[in-house]
Amino acid sequence: MTGLERVFASVTGDKKDYPAISLTLSLYGARLTGCSLPEYYNSSLKYYEGMKAVKERFNPDILFTPFALAAEGEAFGSKAKYLPFYAPNIAKPATLSPKELLETPLPSAASNERIKYLYESARLMAKNLGKENAIAGILLSPVDLPALIMGLDGWLDTIIFHEEEARKICEKLTGYFVDRANALFNEGIHIIALPVIFSNPAIITKGIIDSFVLPYFSKAFSMVKGPLVIHHGGMQFNNYLNKLKDLPNVAAFAIDAKDKLKETREIIGKEKVLLGNIDGPSLNRYSVPHVEQICRRILDDREGDNHFIFASSAADIPYDTPPENIDALLKAVRRN
Questions:
Q1: What per-residue confidence (pLDDT) applies to 218?
Q2: What are the C-alpha distances in Å from 200 to residues 16, 68, 95, 169, 244?
Q3: Distance (Å, whole) CA 28 – CA 41
Q4: Which ranges of the chain does DSSP label H, i.e. alpha helix?
């Protein structure tokens, strides 16, 4: 089977030779090609070459477009920083006021170099790697993106104290999100992963989630022309997953390493795809025997679950992860 066939068999529940594998190796491509990170995260060709190297060296079933959320913020005027061996992060949000954000023109691949980079990286991957591997795009929902533009505190303040402006912002960004998502699907990517933060009761109240967040999720997701994966966004998921399980076009859930797989399966039901849940950012600290032990625990837990994809959770697998750790993970799953 190809990786693409294995992933879609996970959606249909058909039997596979082994569980599909999703590893967040977007950063690791720079290591394999020896590309500097500022160039890697600004040149779509360099990023594609990194993902080609990931395929040739490890061949996970899912390959990711740039896991560089900061680029979305940069497109609206936020400033990013590059630390050694990490994907870029927002150093300074644009800190636009609600009024300024509403007046700001929406960026596009034709008008903005950061959106062009993200779009062209996806296009190159879909064209050249998408026949054998599933290509996953990364986007932020219209409720989550403003935090990269206004800052977390600024967006929280707007939601809580300036609801009318917050709703206008989400209306504006809903169209932006739908256009971006459908453009990616039109280019041939297979799925879109959405790290979500503002649907977590650790961040915002359940009342606001119910009355504000979920209606915008539902509206935006219903207009997308392809399957979505809800990603835990770096926090435990199971305590609010029941709020998200029936959203339109959501086919899968990628959970945190601390979430219990069995519990998640009970929440989302038998038919949704479940991705999890070895901790990707810790993989550089594990020994090979420990990697094998974790893999065995996860595989034993999900034995017989035909809608399961073995996945690294959270952010990128670190740049300095020994390749033998990744090899051990792949070997453990592929011999299952």
A1: 97
A2: 34, 21, 23, 20, 10
A3: 12
A4: 3-12, 28-33, 37-40, 44-57, 69-74, 98-103, 113-129, 146-150, 152-161, 163-187, 206-208, 214-222, 261-268, 288-301, 323-334
Are 249 and 228 in contact, with CB atoms under 8 Å apart? yes
Pairwise CA distance, residues 286 & 292, whole Å:
10
The predicted model scores a pTM of 0.96
Does the pLDDT value for residue 20 go beyond 80? yes
Domain count of the fold of the chain:
1
Domain of residue 25 covers 3-334
CATH number at residue 197: 3.20.20.210
Judge contact between 50 and 30, C-beta under 8 A. Answer: yes
Cα–Cα dist 30/52, whole Å: 11
Determine the distance from the C-alpha atom of residue 95 to the mean position of all C-alpha atoms in its chain, rounded to a whole number. 24
User: DSSP 3-state assignment of 310?
Assistant: strand
Return the bridge partners of 136, or none.
Answer: 64, 191
Length of the chain in terms of residues written: 336
Q: What is the mean pLDDT of residues 182-192?
A: 97
Q: Which residue has the higher pLDDT, 237 or 61?
A: 61
The answer on pLDDT for 233 being more than 90 is no
